[in-house]
Amino acid sequence: MRDRGRGGRERVPVVVQARSGRRGLARVLWIAAETVVTCGVLILLLVVHQLWWTNQQARAEAGAEVRALEREWDISLPEGEGEGEREGEGAVSAGPSARPSAAVVSPSAPPGSGSPSPRRTRPPAPPPAPSAVPPPPSGQTFAVLRIPRIGLTVPVARGISKSKVLDKGYVGHYPGTAAPGAAGNVALAGHRNTHGEPFRYVNRLRKGDEITLRTREGTYTYRVDRILPVTSPRDTGVIQPVPRSIVKPSYGYSEAGSYLTLTTCTPEFTSRYRLIVWATLRR
Predict the structure, then answer these.
(1) The model's pTM
(2) What is the DSSP string of 34-72?
(3) What dihedral do alpha carbons 170, 75, 151, 177 form, nearest 10°?
(4) Of the listed 158, 191, 192, 195, which one is catalytic?
(5) What pLDDT score does 44 carry?
(6) Which of 192, 195, 200, 265 is catalytic?
(7) Is 149 among the residues known to form the active site?
(8) Least confident range of 33-37, 106-110, 150-154, 208-212
(9) CA 192 to mean position of chain CA atoms
(10) Alpha helix locations (H) across 171-260?
(11) Judging by DSSP bridges, how do beta strands 210-214 and 184-189 pair with one another?
(12) Fewest CB atoms within 10 Å of the CB: 8, 43, 92, 196?
């Protein structure tokens, strides 16, 4: 029986569907939780990729490149091979058979009946000027760096491109700096973290530690001499022929010599500053 209120109007009961509203709220919360978990898993996978997988890939590639370089350098040419190339193809030997023979005149021959006088010939044209040799391409490996203190063996490539050099796990050679073993400053850069992180532990180097650079021409040994713990990424003085920090001038050298410079990021997992290790050539 319906209730009648004032004025004789009927009252209609209102039913509130609380359960339906609760189910909708629970569904929204569940979707939000799933989204958060999915994002967390993706972030975790990204971290694993950056901190573990890129290291595995880069170290494998760098190790294979070291083996390929040293295998190439250790192969010696058979004896006598290449001699023709050294003398020049078609070159005329300067031995006795190449000397012009003197004219022989019989004593009984009348004067002037000897061999005819040699004809005058034009002087040979000068050789053409050698064409300019293009610089080696960025990313080409040419040396192997070894640091026994931290158990590092890694190839050195030309340039400091991330995609062509550093992200492959290689150490990069700053363009314009000295060649291994030469006077001046051999400046090298490497990742501190991820992509092989070859310079992860260069902060453990101490004065007197040995560093070797092997190339096709030979092996050059440097000894750690000085360390600059922190400097600006724009401190270009540290890779000059006579390295000296322009941010902290008390660090560096004042005389010409044969130096090796290692540069990497610091602190770990950031690129805010640079850590510098200097070494000098011993042999």
Answers:
(1) 0.68
(2) HHHHHHHHHHHHHHHIIIIIHHHHHHHHHHHHHHHHHHH
(3) -50
(4) 191
(5) 61
(6) 265
(7) no
(8) 106-110
(9) 13
(10) none
(11) unpaired
(12) 8
Among candidate residues 224, 237, 240, the one with its CA nearest the CA of residue 278: 224
Q: Distance between CA atoms of 184 and 181, rounded to whole angstroms?
A: 9
H or E segment at 188? strand 184-189
The CATH number of the domain holding residue 256 is 2.40.260.10
The encoded tokens of residue 188 equal: 């090298």
Question: What single letter denotes the amino acid at residue 262?
Answer: L
Whether residue 126 lies inside any domain: the answer is: no
pLDDT at residue 10, rounded to an integer: 64
Digit-coded pLDDT (tens) for 198-221? 999 999 999 999 999 999 999 999
Longest dimension (CA), the chain: 170
- How much of the chain is in helix, strand and coil states, percent to nearest 5? 30, 25, 50
Q: Is 215 among the domain residues?
A: yes
How many beta carbons lie within 10 A of that of residue 237, not counting itself? 18
- At 149-182, the pLDDT tens digits run 999 999 999 999 999 999 999 999 999 999 999 9
The partner residues of 279 in beta bridges, in order of sequence, read 224, 260
- In the residue annotation, 195 being an active-site residue is answered as no
Q: Which helix (H) or strand (E) holds 260?
A: strand 258-266
191 is catalytic: yes
Q: Smallest Cα–Cα separation from 213: which of 177, 176, 180?
A: 180
Specify whether the CB–CB gap between 257 and 280 falls below 8 A.
Answer: yes
**Rounded Cα gap, residues 116 and 203, in angstroms:** 82
Residue 50 placed within a domain: no
User: Is 253 strand, coil or helix?
Assistant: coil
Residue 16 lies in a domain: no
Q: Write down the pLDDT at residue 203.
A: 97
Q: Which domain holds residue 244?
A: 141-281
Q: Quick one: how far is CA 112 from the chain centroid?
A: 75
Among residues 252, 227, 72, the alpha carbon closest in space to that of 149 is found at 227
